[in-house]
Here is the input.
Amino acid sequence: MLVGVDVYKKRRQKFGGMLSFVATMNQGYSRYWSTVKPEKDGEIGPKMQLSMKEAIEEYCKENDNKVPERVIVFRDGISRFALKDVKANEIKGIRLAFEEIEKKYGSKPKLIFLLVNKKIDAKFFLEGQGIHFSFHLVKYT
Here is the structure.
């Protein structure tokens, strides 16, 4: 199962933000399930847990009560400063959802969690045969 997650937060608005969540529902990655959840208290973890549980339950309905072998989550829009919060809240929420699924279906998926960041500042250097070459990744590649 492939999952895409993004969180919209506007600092100066009365509501906290929105969690958008989309997941594939079949082996061919051609059917999708999605949800949007408002968050007011700044806690994404419980919304992530609920969304993940709902997505896996929907996947099981469409796949003869089979739990996906692995869930690959693409999480967009994380700054370096929010990494600890993502681990403490969002990944914890996903793991709690997996525990609930295991109780209900007898197995749980493996998790692969990828952070997608548009602000790239990595430099790569290649050396070989006396030639030194370096390049800088361009944003949005």
